[in-house]
Amino acid sequence: MSARTSRSADVSLDFTRVRAEFGLPSEFPPGVLAEAQQAVGRDLAPGPRRDATALPLVSIDPPGAKDLDQIMYLQRRARGYRVHYAIADLGAFVVPGGLLDREVRSRGQTLYLPDGIVPMHPPVLSEDAASLLPDRIRPAVLWTMDLDADGELESTSVCRAVVRSTACLDFDMVAASLRAGSPHPSIALLPEIGRLRRALALRRGAIELGLPDQQVVPDGAGGWRPALRRRVEIDDWNAEISLLTGMAAAQIMLTAGVGVLRTLPDPDEQVIARLRDHAEALGVEWPAGAGPAQLLAGLDSTRPEAMALYLDATRLLRGAGYTAFDSGAPSHSGHAGIGAPYAHVTAPLRRLVDRFGTEICLAVTEGSRPAEWALAALPKLPSLMGSSDQIAGRVERACVSQSEAWVLASRVGHEFEATVLRIAGTTGEIFITDPPVATRCEVGAVPPGGRLRVRLTSVDPETRKVRFEAVPPEPIADEAIADAAAWNAATIAGGDPVPEASILGARLTNPAAGSPRAPAAEADR
Predict the structure, then answer these.
(1) In a domain, 399, yes or no
(2) What sign for the dihedral angle of Cα 326, 327, 328, 332?
(3) 355 in any annotated domain
(4) Helices (H) then strands (E): counts for the chain
(5) So what's the pLDDT on residue 301?
(6) Fewer CB within 10 Å: C terminus or N terminus of the chain?
(7) Which of 32-46, 137-151, 315-329, 436-450 has the lowest mean pLDDT?
(8) For residue 299, what are the domain limits?
(9) Burial letters 70-91, b for 16+ CB under 10 A, else e
(10) In-domain check, residue 282
(11) pTM for this predicted structure
(12) Does a structural domain hold residue 303?
């Protein structure tokens, strides 16, 4: 048996060490702040704006969020639907080539830590002048998309506008109003449109994983703990509006032969074959003629074997990146996780690339050549975003690991029930239900989807390391199996999976900013 140890070094229960480890900036340079302040009240974007303040647009965001990128209004047409989707317009505030522009390029995206955010833009913009806060008139880019009765996109228009949000809703509020049959009129059609778009996604072969979001939340005693939040329907329906806009933007760019796409290569046949073998080993039937998307969509997400398959299916989503082009459509333009070409244009307050993609779409639809500053940036964006995504993923992993070490520090020597998610040799990736911890451990011959007991042998909060060892097998009560399969509702804190972030999808909760939120929160793969 391994030595049982717990290091209780004086590690403050915040994420200062994580910020220092990754060199995250704590403030903006004075010149950047001055430039941002000077931009307030001015509109630096070219051309006129449509007055769209009469549209009853509303936002759906986590409680307390201030950096609001999107507001929507959904209408029924005689033979389909109209989606109005207004996006914060950073082109009104950022001087190309200025100090602020250079600073946000160096940051790449907003980072969400449990105890606060590292914003991409100064808060005077991201949480005030540029944010689509309720009852404020704001510059925006307005996407108007007409759908047919099946939810297919028929036409798209995009223009600069001034808008006013009429309400700031949160996910729980929207879900409760839908259950009560009294949704806000502006989004009453969201379930109807969302279900249609989800059905279309499945037919496209879009890969959707049922992994819960892994969060870090306050523990009620001044510290932090890991928690899980299952995705619910309202998450998916809201994400479908953003995905719709991103796919519309991609088509505009591809038609014009200029832009920047979020791309993901099709999975290798060997990866699919491995998933088939894994499904067979777990006793999961793969329907004849079905692809991975249909298999995954048909799983019961509360079952351990489903969790094991979801995790293994993250291999289908490896290799995401950005593809920039300005002399015709690229040879590879698709996103295998979405089943269609896709672009990031819906989160410009929190992600760098969206501002450039938006400017390309505006210019193309106006019949003009995109601005030279936007074209000049295109070749650099994939590298800038790739570096930023790597930092964001590492920060998320560090915060989750830190919270796991804190919550386990006093439980060295305790035993836990675990589910094996996948294995490599004799080492398995395991999930412990209470507290919700995903880690690695020697599992011997226990297969994916199998269960075992593990003992916590050491914890080091300073290095964020925890170690478990397998306990000789004993029968596990049926009730315990059911609890593990259901992920133990008592641990669910509250979801777009981020396979690269940790064993499970990761989201960090920041009370001040109203997270859980990440740059990919609304739809991004």
Answers:
(1) no
(2) negative
(3) no
(4) 14, 21
(5) 81
(6) N
(7) 436-450
(8) 269-314
(9) bbbbbeeeeebbbbbbbbbbbb
(10) yes
(11) 0.88
(12) yes
